[in-house]
Amino acid sequence: MMLVKCLACDADNDPRATGGYCDSCGKKLPPASMVSPRRDRSGMTTDVPEPIAPRRSRISEALYSAAVVQLVAGGLFLILGLNLFATAPARFLTTVMLLTLVPTVGLALCGVLERTWGQMWPVVALVGYPVWIAIGFLIHPALAVGWLVVNGVVILVLLWVLWIHLRL
Question: Do 130 and 65 share a domain, yes or no?
Answer without folding.
Answer: yes
